[in-house]
Amino acid sequence: MCGIVGYVGAQQAAPLLVEGLTRLEHRGYDSAGVAVLGSRLQVTKKAGRVRDLSEALPKRLAGKVGIGHTRWATHGPATDTNAHPHTDTSGTVAVVHNGIVDNAAALRARLVADGVELASDTDTEVFAHLVARSGADTLEGKVVEALGQVEGTYGLAVVHADFPDRVVVARHGSPLLIGVGEKEMFIASDLAAVVRHTTTVAHLDDGELATVTAGGFTTFRHDLTRTTTQASAVDIDPSAFEHGDVSGEPRMYTEILEQPASVERTLRGRLDERFGTAHLGGLDMDARDLRAFRRVKILGCGSAYYVGQMGASMIEELARVPADAEPASEFRYRNPIIEPDTLYVAVSQSGETVDTLLAVEEIRRKGGRVIGLVNVVGSAIARACDGGIYLHAGPEIAVASTKALTTMFVGFSLLALQLGRVRDLSVADGRRLVNGLQRLPAQIEEILKTEDHIADIARDLADAESMFFVGRVRGYPVAREGAQKLKEITYRHAEAYPTSELKHGPLALISPKVPTVAIVPADELTDRNVAALHEIDARGGPLVIVTHPEVDLGDLHARRIDVPRNETELDPVLLTVPLQLLAYHASVHLGLDVDKPRNLAKSVTVE
Ligand code: G6P
């Protein structure tokens, strides 16, 4: 969702701002704008794409200081006027903002009562007026005074025509970083926007502000006392953030293909073959701590929630500790009981999903212990947790999660293994799983080789308006994730059901026009699974079955997709991979924008 960029330095700001904004496009947005500070403050903003903004920019737009924004509409529709930056009435101050002002209505009413004419429907506009009306004599003082009146969350960047050498930024609940260049500074809400220019970066903490000038930055608190936040080099390959690869393939496709390598990275240095366990230093817990937990509660949103369900069943199987997953977006609102002997696990690719972040904060407020399973290093969720497991999947740009999901699964396997081995999981079983995990990259590679066959099936499925995804026990979250992937990028209706529940309702819908994708691993439930699928077959429902080569489907009329078999507990991740390719090829067949599905954002930073 919403993205912030900023620049202060020796170059012209406008092209750098626009370039930065294009690097944030994957996050999801519906309007964009820039404010450039030269001899005067000039603001251009447009509903639509960054390229619409780029075309609307004045030919002569000189200025070496500027801020830019991609907006995801929350308060008011996606119009030119509601796009950021927002200015005060005199056009002296410009502000870009990620987050939500909770008391916007009251602040807007107060400004209107004072005779201010508000231009937009947004909550953000109040910042610009509050900064302009502050009596403080520095920009830092003005921003602090304005923020003192605001309740809510923000990542914020402000420019002011009377202070033309600087951008003042602030963070409270919405990420913000400063990229340090050679006599130039970059500002962004996401590393992706700056890595082409610099990989030396300072992340602001919540409650921190910074003054950014061409020569450097200083950080401070709301009482204007200095803080010591420093920039440091991030170990990242800038090319990993490119949208699409050289061959012009969609980013989702390259991310699917990267999975053997990203799974390998998640595993690197964490497996112990001798003792059949995993080492997760980031948890910062010893065997005694791990033994003390009597429950595991996993929280995430979207695909992270579905993989959380896969993780929960793995933890129950391997560690014999009750475990379940719940959407983080619901958890906080039911006044959850936080138990001291429950291990809470927050799972998130971006580490920014606000629902997950707020759940973490609620748990910690109530004294619970929470670890993160997070991809983005240093992200808000990673910082808010007591410890965690970084996924090392590399940047995930496509909205539909693929390599983050598979590495989350691997992260859960490592956690389940370690939790199991401090309890009753035998060393032999531990070694069996270590060995299974080591086989995963090559097996994913094998599945990727069957792409043509899957693409062929995908083309047939793409024509169906509606379909079911079914699976049992370990296969059920796989079905849920498969349905999610298809919905996200094909806009086809797909509903996941436990196979066992078919006869309790959905069977009524089965017809030759409604296909079913069934997950049928070789396990203790294979025969029951196959029996239930006969009921679909008998009603003319087309079947696609994702299964193992040794499974005998008898006389079922079905197209099958075989995946290699691993240890039963680890099979779900391999069963998931063909479903990614299925959704991807269906989307391509329908001629849709695979990487930027309508109405969806990569990082959902509002509730
Ligand atoms: C959004 C994305 C989903 C993702 C979910 C959680 O809804 O569109 O693909 O699964 O957020 O994101 P996270 O970054 O917390 O894993």
From TrEMBL:
Gene3D superfamilies: Glucose-6-phosphate isomerase like protein, domain 1, Glutamine Phosphoribosylpyrophosphate, subunit 1, domain 1. The keyword Transferase applies. SUPFAM superfamilies: N-terminal nucleophile aminohydrolases (Ntn hydrolases) (SSF56235), SIS domain (SSF53697). Its EC number is 2.6.1.16. It catalyses: D-fructose 6-phosphate + L-glutamine = D-glucosamine 6-phosphate + L-glutamate. This is Glutamine--fructose-6-phosphate aminotransferase [isomerizing]. Coiled coil: none annotated. Residues 286-425, 457-597 form the SIS domain. GO terms for biological process: fructose 6-phosphate metabolic process; protein N-linked glycosylation; UDP-N-acetylglucosamine metabolic process. The gene is glmS. Its main location: cytoplasm. NCBIfam families: glmS (TIGR01135), PRK00331.1 (NF001484). Keywords: Aminotransferase, Cytoplasm, Glutamine amidotransferase, Repeat, Transferase. GO terms for molecular function: carbohydrate derivative binding; glutamine-fructose-6-phosphate transaminase (isomerizing) activity. InterPro entries: GATase_2_dom, GFAT, GFAT_N, GlmS/AgaS_SIS, GlmS/FrlB_SIS, Ntn_hydrolases_N, SIS_dom, SIS_dom_sf. It comes from the Bacteria. It is found in: Cytoplasm. It is an enzyme of class 2 (transferase).
